[in-house]
Here is the input.
Amino acid sequence: MPVKPKSLAVQAVITINPLFKLLIWVNSALCVLTFVGMVAMAIFAPKDPTPAQTQLSTACETVFKMTAGAFIGLLGGRAAAPDAPKQTGPTQ
Here is the structure.
């Protein structure tokens, strides 16, 4: 029977940070809410919107753009800084 050398096996580890998950959910909710608001205003608003409706539409558009950028930043930052590899095997 051959003797196996003592080596450390490195495995990729995926950990889910609860705070990161919360940020993704909050960002998703804001994105969906503002998108639904923009669609609802586009469907139900009169041809000449009031200044308040115009301001609300602009605010929804701005928040929608910010949440889209936040997704890119959150996921890109997560990919750029992965978790440290977990070492398994015998310890010395």
About this structure: The longest strand covers residues 9-11. The helical segments are 18-44, 51-80. The mean pLDDT is 81.
